[in-house]
Design a protein that fits this description.
By secondary structure, this protein is of the alpha/beta class. The protein has one domain: TIM Barrel, CATH 3.20.20. It contains 12 helices and 8 strands. Strand 6, helix 9 and strand 7 form a beta-alpha-beta unit. It starts with a helix and ends with a helix.
Length: 229
């Protein structure tokens, strides 16, 4: 289990991971504003290209104790290259990394000593991802067989979340696509996900802290309803 992620979730009462792909202000200002309400930051390729690796290192250094740092650099290559990238990702200060599964090789790079937590991407949130979505059960099996900590499932496709939860009850499920792509905060948790990844509706908000708090509260309301059933 991704012990740090879950530890922070219980301590902070949050299941929100904020995606730093597109942001409207200095990264540190947004991170500071959402630190109290989010459990983690997902830092993607657009952020790296716009702000550079030193900005990432600074975020990991400053917020690495209070937030789970999740890397999403679109890892989809031969196992040797993915393994090299995972080593560098860990050195930057990340706790976890998202890796594609469709290209094969997860059984190899998942065995990398000292790697970050590994989340296999088994389906995507946009409507054109029909080829990868059609094989999500095979990809999910590969994630489970490799012993990865979790997988990424689309908030826009709750049926996939429900099936992934049923087929792999022990995996940590991260669900992107909340907010800007349509689904409301709490909807993916309601379908069986463990954490919701929320990007533009927080990072492009005039008040990212308030937007993040509202998302956290909406999710917690769904969790409370689940517990009362």
């Amino acid at each position: 289990m991704t012990s740090k992620l879950w530890k922070l979730a219980y301590e902070k009462g949050s299941r929100v991971i904020v995606a730093f792909d597109t942001i409207s202000a200095e990264p540190d200002l947004i991170a500071e504003s959402i630190e109290e309400y989010a459990v983690g930051l997902k830092i993607g390729l657009p952020f790296l290209l716009r702000w550079g690796s030193e900005a990432i290192r600074n975020l990991c250094r400053k917020y690495g104790e209070s937030l789970y740092m999740l890397c999403d650099m679109k890892l989809a290559d031969i196992p040797y290259v993915v393994s090299e990238a995972l080593i560098l990702i860990k050195e930057l200060g990340f706790d976890g990394a998202i890796a594609h599964v469709f290209q094969g090789g997860i059984q190899e790079f998942s065995k990398l000593p000292g790697r970050p937590d590994l989340f296999g991407l088994i389906a995507m949130s946009h409507p054109q991802s029909t080829l990868i979505d059609a094989h999500f059960e095979d990809l999910l099996k590969a994630v489970v067989d490799a012993g990865a900590e979790g997988c990424v499932v689309p908030a826009t496709k709750p049926d996939i979340i429900r099936r992934a939860r049923r087929l792999a009850p022990g995996l940590t499920l991260l669900a992107p696509g909340i907010g800007a792509q349509g689904p409301q905060p709490g909807s993916a948790i309601g379908a069986g996900a463990d954490f919701e990844i929320i990007g533009r509706s927080v990072t492009l908000s005039e008040d990212p802290g308030s937007a993040c708090k509202a998302a956290r509260d909406a999710i917690n309301a769904i969790i409370k309803k689940q517990l009362l059933r």
